[in-house]
Amino acid sequence: MQFQKKLLIPYDAIQKRVRELARQISIDYRGKDTVLIGMLNGAVFFFSDLALQLTVPAKIDFIRASSYGSQMISSGKVKLTKDVELSVTDKSVLIIEDIVDTGLTVSHVISHLNTRDPESVEVCALIDKSERREINVAVRYCGFRLKEGFVVGYGLDCNEEYRCLKDIYTLE
Ligand code: IMP
Can you tell me the distance from the alpha carbon of 128 to that of 170, in angstroms, rounded to the nearest whole number? Predict the structure, then answer.
């Protein structure tokens, strides 16, 4: 199926927002033993741009969860396909996610990490589609809010396409 893509958030606006988020996170995580956990693959560019802007030390690790069957339909079932390798026990964990939509994926990851007794677990999402939420998830840091639509670019995909675009687009 062929989609039309329409520019939604240009790269410069993404970078400006990333700097703002990094400034706030650097204040909130001062003096903490922090582990940033990037959700592969969608958060990869957001994760690296954000991590490079932090002014506080942090360790980094990655986790991968899949919930989307194919294209734009969520399967509703979350499966971890790669786990974190660092210990998160007693650490201040900040999950860096691309999009929180129904909330099922990130809440599964939060529950999984909580079994390892971290000091805290918070979520930083590039995009929050809070109106589609099916499960309550507190997104402490949010780049952009989106009411509707399916977006691609800057790491976000549709069936593994479009991830390497610099800007964020809606697919129509
Ligand atoms: P949730 O479990 O419904 O919150 O879905 C979260 C995951 O679905 C995200 O990590 C994305 O990988 C994917 N997702 C949700 N909405 C979009 C979108 O608009 N574009 C690309 N991926 C999306």
Answer: 14
